[in-house]
Design brief:
Distance between the termini: 121 Å
Number of strands: 26
Number of helices: 6
Helix content: 10-25%
Largest sheet: 7 strands, mixed
Protein backbone atom coordinates (compact mmCIF):
# COMPACT_ATOMS: atom_id res chain seq x y z
CA UNK A 1 0.00 0.00 0.00
CA UNK A 2 2.96 2.27 0.55
CA UNK A 3 3.90 2.05 -3.15
CA UNK A 4 0.37 2.73 -4.53
CA UNK A 5 1.37 6.05 -6.09
CA UNK A 6 4.34 4.42 -7.80
CA UNK A 7 2.16 1.60 -9.11
CA UNK A 8 -0.48 3.98 -10.55
CA UNK A 9 2.25 6.03 -12.20
CA UNK A 10 3.74 2.89 -13.77
CA UNK A 11 0.32 1.84 -15.05
CA UNK A 12 -0.27 5.21 -16.66
CA UNK A 13 3.14 5.15 -18.35
CA UNK A 14 2.48 1.59 -19.51
CA UNK A 15 -0.83 2.52 -21.09
CA UNK A 16 0.72 5.58 -22.75
CA UNK A 17 3.54 3.43 -24.14
CA UNK A 18 1.03 0.90 -25.48
CA UNK A 19 -0.96 3.64 -27.25
CA UNK A 20 2.27 5.05 -28.68
CA UNK A 21 3.25 1.68 -30.13
CA UNK A 22 -0.24 1.04 -31.51
CA UNK A 23 -0.40 4.49 -33.12
CA UNK A 24 2.81 3.82 -35.08
CA UNK A 25 1.55 0.56 -36.56
CA UNK A 26 -0.45 0.27 -39.81
CA UNK A 27 -3.80 -1.54 -39.80
CA UNK A 28 -6.32 -2.42 -42.48
CA UNK A 29 -10.05 -1.66 -42.50
CA UNK A 30 -12.83 -2.76 -44.84
CA UNK A 31 -15.28 0.08 -45.58
CA UNK A 32 -18.08 0.93 -48.03
CA UNK A 33 -17.44 4.14 -49.97
CA UNK A 34 -19.41 6.01 -52.66
CA UNK A 35 -18.61 5.45 -56.35
CA UNK A 36 -18.57 8.83 -58.11
CA UNK A 37 -18.31 9.66 -61.82
CA UNK A 38 -16.89 13.04 -62.82
CA UNK A 39 -16.11 15.14 -65.93
CA UNK A 40 -18.46 13.29 -68.27
CA UNK A 41 -18.95 15.39 -71.48
CA UNK A 42 -22.34 17.14 -71.69
CA UNK A 43 -23.23 15.31 -74.91
CA UNK A 44 -22.95 11.91 -73.19
CA UNK A 45 -24.78 10.12 -70.39
CA UNK A 46 -24.45 6.90 -68.40
CA UNK A 47 -26.99 4.35 -69.65
CA UNK A 48 -26.16 1.45 -67.31
CA UNK A 49 -26.73 1.02 -63.57
CA UNK A 50 -23.34 0.94 -61.85
CA UNK A 51 -23.34 0.44 -58.07
CA UNK A 52 -23.70 3.50 -55.85
CA UNK A 53 -20.95 2.28 -53.52
CA UNK A 54 -18.10 -0.19 -53.31
CA UNK A 55 -16.55 -2.28 -50.53
CA UNK A 56 -12.82 -1.60 -50.41
CA UNK A 57 -9.90 -2.15 -48.04
CA UNK A 58 -7.82 0.75 -46.80
CA UNK A 59 -4.65 0.89 -44.73
CA UNK A 60 -3.40 3.47 -42.25
CA UNK A 61 -2.69 4.37 -38.66
CA UNK A 62 -5.17 3.27 -36.02
CA UNK A 63 -6.32 6.78 -35.08
CA UNK A 64 -6.88 7.71 -38.73
CA UNK A 65 -8.86 4.54 -39.33
CA UNK A 66 -11.04 5.20 -36.29
CA UNK A 67 -11.86 8.71 -37.54
CA UNK A 68 -12.40 7.39 -41.08
CA UNK A 69 -14.81 4.71 -39.89
CA UNK A 70 -16.93 7.34 -38.17
CA UNK A 71 -17.09 9.43 -41.35
CA UNK A 72 -17.97 6.73 -43.90
CA UNK A 73 -21.06 5.79 -41.90
CA UNK A 74 -22.54 9.18 -42.80
CA UNK A 75 -24.44 8.75 -46.13
CA UNK A 76 -23.90 12.43 -47.01
CA UNK A 77 -20.12 12.37 -46.79
CA UNK A 78 -18.05 12.90 -49.97
CA UNK A 79 -14.54 13.11 -48.55
CA UNK A 80 -13.88 9.36 -48.95
CA UNK A 81 -14.82 7.84 -52.35
CA UNK A 82 -13.76 5.94 -55.43
CA UNK A 83 -13.80 8.45 -58.30
CA UNK A 84 -13.89 7.65 -62.03
CA UNK A 85 -12.78 10.38 -64.46
CA UNK A 86 -14.88 10.15 -67.66
CA UNK A 87 -13.42 13.12 -69.48
CA UNK A 88 -12.07 10.86 -72.26
CA UNK A 89 -15.09 8.53 -72.31
CA UNK A 90 -16.36 7.09 -75.60
CA UNK A 91 -19.78 5.76 -76.58
CA UNK A 92 -20.43 2.12 -75.86
CA UNK A 93 -19.90 -0.45 -73.12
CA UNK A 94 -16.60 -0.73 -71.27
CA UNK A 95 -15.05 -2.25 -68.16
CA UNK A 96 -13.04 0.16 -66.00
CA UNK A 97 -10.34 -1.12 -63.66
CA UNK A 98 -10.27 0.65 -60.29
CA UNK A 99 -7.07 1.02 -58.27
CA UNK A 100 -5.31 3.47 -55.98
CA UNK A 101 -5.50 6.31 -58.51
CA UNK A 102 -9.30 6.28 -58.14
CA UNK A 103 -9.19 6.49 -54.35
CA UNK A 104 -9.86 9.91 -52.82
CA UNK A 105 -9.51 10.52 -49.07
CA UNK A 106 -9.70 14.23 -48.37
CA UNK A 107 -8.30 15.00 -44.92
CA UNK A 108 -6.65 11.57 -44.58
CA UNK A 109 -3.33 11.81 -46.40
CA UNK A 110 -1.88 8.75 -44.62
CA UNK A 111 -4.70 6.37 -45.53
CA UNK A 112 -4.15 4.33 -48.68
CA UNK A 113 -6.21 2.03 -50.90
CA UNK A 114 -5.27 -1.66 -50.72
CA UNK A 115 -5.83 -3.46 -54.03
CA UNK A 116 -7.27 -6.98 -53.64
CA UNK A 117 -4.67 -9.71 -54.10
CA UNK A 118 -6.79 -12.39 -55.77
CA UNK A 119 -8.98 -10.30 -58.09
CA UNK A 120 -9.17 -6.91 -59.74
CA UNK A 121 -11.70 -4.31 -58.74
CA UNK A 122 -13.66 -3.06 -61.75
CA UNK A 123 -16.98 -1.49 -62.79
CA UNK A 124 -18.96 -2.03 -66.00
CA UNK A 125 -20.19 1.12 -67.67
CA UNK A 126 -22.33 1.89 -70.73
CA UNK A 127 -22.04 5.37 -72.25
CA UNK A 128 -24.79 6.63 -74.57
CA UNK A 129 -25.77 9.89 -76.29
CA UNK A 130 -27.51 12.39 -74.02
CA UNK A 131 -30.95 13.63 -75.08
CA UNK A 132 -33.78 15.62 -73.49
CA UNK A 133 -37.50 14.95 -73.87
CA UNK A 134 -40.81 15.82 -72.28
CA UNK A 135 -42.38 12.97 -70.31
CA UNK A 136 -46.07 13.01 -69.27
CA UNK A 137 -46.81 13.35 -65.57
CA UNK A 138 -49.28 10.90 -64.05
CA UNK A 139 -51.08 11.79 -60.84
CA UNK A 140 -51.53 8.98 -58.30
CA UNK A 141 -52.53 11.36 -55.53
CA UNK A 142 -55.99 10.81 -54.03
CA UNK A 143 -58.49 13.61 -53.39
CA UNK A 144 -61.88 13.21 -51.71
CA UNK A 145 -64.48 15.88 -51.01
CA UNK A 146 -66.12 16.48 -47.66
CA UNK A 147 -69.72 15.41 -47.12
CA UNK A 148 -72.05 17.70 -49.06
CA UNK A 149 -69.34 18.61 -51.58
CA UNK A 150 -68.10 17.06 -54.81
CA UNK A 151 -65.06 17.10 -57.08
CA UNK A 152 -66.44 18.71 -60.24
CA UNK A 153 -63.62 17.83 -62.63
CA UNK A 154 -60.50 15.75 -63.03
CA UNK A 155 -57.62 17.28 -61.01
CA UNK A 156 -55.60 19.54 -63.30
CA UNK A 157 -51.83 18.92 -63.38
CA UNK A 158 -49.47 21.80 -64.11
CA UNK A 159 -47.24 21.29 -65.93
CA UNK A 160 -48.60 18.17 -67.66
CA UNK A 161 -45.10 17.15 -68.82
CA UNK A 162 -41.64 17.18 -67.27
CA UNK A 163 -38.41 17.81 -69.14
CA UNK A 164 -35.86 15.10 -68.39
CA UNK A 165 -32.29 14.60 -69.58
CA UNK A 166 -30.32 11.39 -69.83
CA UNK A 167 -29.09 8.53 -72.01
CA UNK A 168 -31.12 7.93 -75.17
CA UNK A 169 -31.78 4.25 -74.39
CA UNK A 170 -32.89 5.10 -70.87
CA UNK A 171 -35.28 7.91 -71.80
CA UNK A 172 -37.07 5.93 -74.52
CA UNK A 173 -38.16 3.41 -71.86
CA UNK A 174 -39.92 6.04 -69.71
CA UNK A 175 -43.70 6.09 -70.29
CA UNK A 176 -44.64 8.60 -67.59
CA UNK A 177 -43.50 10.01 -64.27
CA UNK A 178 -45.92 9.52 -61.35
CA UNK A 179 -46.49 11.77 -58.41
CA UNK A 180 -46.20 10.29 -54.96
CA UNK A 181 -49.29 8.70 -53.42
CA UNK A 182 -50.40 11.67 -51.33
CA UNK A 183 -53.90 11.55 -49.83
CA UNK A 184 -56.14 14.57 -49.19
CA UNK A 185 -59.63 14.06 -47.78
CA UNK A 186 -62.63 16.09 -46.52
CA UNK A 187 -61.94 18.90 -48.99
CA UNK A 188 -64.59 21.64 -48.99
CA UNK A 189 -62.96 24.30 -51.20
CA UNK A 190 -61.04 24.40 -54.45
CA UNK A 191 -57.30 24.25 -53.80
CA UNK A 192 -53.94 23.95 -55.52
CA UNK A 193 -51.56 21.39 -54.05
CA UNK A 194 -47.81 20.97 -54.54
CA UNK A 195 -47.17 17.24 -54.92
CA UNK A 196 -43.66 15.67 -55.00
CA UNK A 197 -42.80 13.51 -58.00
CA UNK A 198 -41.82 9.87 -57.55
CA UNK A 199 -38.46 9.16 -59.22
CA UNK A 200 -37.95 5.71 -57.66
CA UNK A 201 -38.51 3.92 -60.99
CA UNK A 202 -36.46 6.29 -63.13
CA UNK A 203 -33.37 4.81 -64.80
CA UNK A 204 -30.02 5.73 -63.28
CA UNK A 205 -28.44 9.09 -64.14
CA UNK A 206 -31.65 10.63 -65.52
CA UNK A 207 -31.97 14.29 -64.54
CA UNK A 208 -35.50 15.78 -64.20
CA UNK A 209 -36.02 19.52 -64.53
CA UNK A 210 -38.18 19.71 -61.38
CA UNK A 211 -39.04 17.63 -58.35
CA UNK A 212 -42.70 18.53 -57.82
CA UNK A 213 -45.88 19.42 -59.68
CA UNK A 214 -48.96 21.52 -58.90
CA UNK A 215 -52.41 19.92 -58.95
CA UNK A 216 -55.58 22.01 -58.87
CA UNK A 217 -58.76 20.41 -57.52
CA UNK A 218 -62.20 21.88 -58.33
CA UNK A 219 -64.37 21.43 -55.23
CA UNK A 220 -68.00 22.60 -55.33
CA UNK A 221 -70.81 22.47 -52.84
CA UNK A 222 -73.49 19.99 -53.89
CA UNK A 223 -76.94 21.40 -54.53
CA UNK A 224 -80.19 20.67 -56.36
CA UNK A 225 -82.13 22.92 -58.73
CA UNK A 226 -85.52 22.43 -60.36
CA UNK A 227 -86.34 23.63 -63.88
CA UNK A 228 -90.10 23.76 -64.45
CA UNK A 229 -92.26 23.39 -67.57
CA UNK A 230 -89.72 21.66 -69.80
CA UNK A 231 -91.68 20.50 -72.89
CA UNK A 232 -91.50 16.87 -74.00
CA UNK A 233 -91.05 16.33 -77.77
CA UNK A 234 -92.70 13.26 -79.26
CA UNK A 235 -90.65 12.17 -82.27
CA UNK A 236 -91.01 9.41 -84.81
CA UNK A 237 -93.42 8.34 -87.58
CA UNK A 238 -96.96 8.81 -86.27
CA UNK A 239 -100.21 10.72 -86.82
CA UNK A 240 -99.77 13.81 -84.72
CA UNK A 241 -103.46 14.63 -84.95
CA UNK A 242 -104.21 11.34 -83.17
CA UNK A 243 -101.34 10.76 -80.75
CA UNK A 244 -100.04 13.08 -78.04
CA UNK A 245 -98.26 12.95 -74.70
CA UNK A 246 -99.67 13.63 -71.29
CA UNK A 247 -98.38 15.65 -69.60
CA UNK A 248 -96.81 17.76 -72.32
CA UNK A 249 -94.14 19.20 -70.01
CA UNK A 250 -92.24 18.06 -66.93
CA UNK A 251 -90.14 19.50 -64.14
CA UNK A 252 -86.44 18.50 -64.17
CA UNK A 253 -84.48 18.41 -60.92
CA UNK A 254 -80.70 18.39 -61.39
CA UNK A 255 -78.30 17.63 -58.54
CA UNK A 256 -74.65 18.68 -58.92
CA UNK A 257 -72.06 21.33 -58.18
CA UNK A 258 -73.42 24.79 -57.40
CA UNK A 259 -71.25 26.56 -59.96
CA UNK A 260 -72.27 24.07 -62.64
CA UNK A 261 -75.95 24.55 -61.86
CA UNK A 262 -75.47 28.32 -62.18
CA UNK A 263 -74.46 27.78 -65.83
CA UNK A 264 -77.58 25.72 -66.68
CA UNK A 265 -80.84 27.28 -67.91
CA UNK A 266 -84.06 25.74 -69.18
CA UNK A 267 -82.75 26.19 -72.72
CA UNK A 268 -79.97 23.67 -71.95
CA UNK A 269 -82.52 20.94 -71.20
CA UNK A 270 -84.38 18.94 -73.84
CA UNK A 271 -86.83 16.09 -73.19
CA UNK A 272 -87.38 13.64 -76.04
CA UNK A 273 -89.83 10.72 -76.27
CA UNK A 274 -89.63 8.31 -79.21
CA UNK A 275 -93.03 7.13 -80.46
CA UNK A 276 -91.77 3.61 -81.31
CA UNK A 277 -90.62 2.97 -77.73
CA UNK A 278 -94.20 2.51 -76.56
CA UNK A 279 -94.67 -0.41 -78.97
CA UNK A 280 -91.20 -1.87 -78.45
CA UNK A 281 -91.45 -1.82 -74.65
CA UNK A 282 -95.19 -2.57 -74.68
CA UNK A 283 -95.96 0.18 -72.18
CA UNK A 284 -98.37 3.11 -72.03
CA UNK A 285 -96.10 5.27 -69.83
CA UNK A 286 -92.33 5.76 -70.20
CA UNK A 287 -89.62 8.12 -69.01
CA UNK A 288 -88.42 10.48 -71.75
CA UNK A 289 -84.76 10.87 -72.63
CA UNK A 290 -83.04 13.89 -71.07
CA UNK A 291 -80.61 15.77 -73.28
CA UNK A 292 -78.54 18.20 -71.22
CA UNK A 293 -76.30 20.57 -73.15
CA UNK A 294 -73.39 21.83 -71.02
CA UNK A 295 -70.44 24.13 -71.77
CA UNK A 296 -67.41 22.24 -73.10
CA UNK A 297 -65.33 22.87 -69.97
CA UNK A 298 -67.80 21.10 -67.64
CA UNK A 299 -67.20 17.45 -66.81
CA UNK A 300 -70.76 16.07 -66.82
CA UNK A 301 -69.88 12.70 -65.29
CA UNK A 302 -68.29 14.32 -62.25
CA UNK A 303 -70.21 17.58 -61.89
CA UNK A 304 -73.75 16.18 -62.36
CA UNK A 305 -74.76 13.56 -59.82
CA UNK A 306 -78.45 13.02 -60.58
CA UNK A 307 -81.31 14.08 -62.90
CA UNK A 308 -84.87 13.41 -61.79
CA UNK A 309 -88.11 14.01 -63.71
CA UNK A 310 -91.31 15.10 -62.00
CA UNK A 311 -93.47 13.25 -62.85
CA UNK A 312 -91.10 10.51 -63.94
CA UNK A 313 -93.15 9.27 -66.93
CA UNK A 314 -95.36 10.48 -69.75
CA UNK A 315 -98.34 8.63 -71.21
CA UNK A 316 -99.16 8.19 -74.89
CA UNK A 317 -102.77 9.30 -75.55
CA UNK A 318 -104.82 8.43 -78.64
CA UNK A 319 -107.76 10.51 -79.77
CA UNK A 320 -110.87 8.72 -81.00
CA UNK A 321 -111.50 9.84 -84.58
CA UNK A 322 -114.22 8.68 -87.01
CA UNK A 323 -112.52 9.35 -90.37
CA UNK A 324 -109.63 7.09 -91.38
CA UNK A 325 -106.32 8.88 -91.52
CA UNK A 326 -104.94 9.36 -95.00
CA UNK A 327 -101.32 9.05 -96.07
CA UNK A 328 -101.14 12.84 -96.42
CA UNK A 329 -101.68 13.26 -92.69
CA UNK A 330 -98.66 11.06 -91.78
CA UNK A 331 -95.36 12.79 -91.38
CA UNK A 332 -92.03 12.45 -89.67
CA UNK A 333 -91.85 14.82 -86.76
CA UNK A 334 -88.39 16.10 -85.95
CA UNK A 335 -87.33 16.90 -82.46
Amino acid sequence: MGNIVLKITALIFGIALWFLVISQKDFQLSVSVPLNFVKLPETMAIASKPPHSLHITVEGKSWDLIRLNNIVNDPKQNSIAMVVDLQQAELGAKRIHLDSKNFVSAGFPDIHFVEPENQLLFVDLDIDTRITRNVPIKSVATFTAAQGYLIADEPAISPEELLVSGARNALTRIIDIPTDSSFFDTLHASQEFTIPLDFSNLPAFVSPSDSSVKISVNIQKMSSRTYDSIPVSLIGFFDRQVYSLEPKSLSVEITGGEQVLDSITAQNIELVMEYNRFAIEDADSLSPTVKLTLPAHINREMAIKAIQLKPEKVTLRKKETKPVATADSLEEVAP
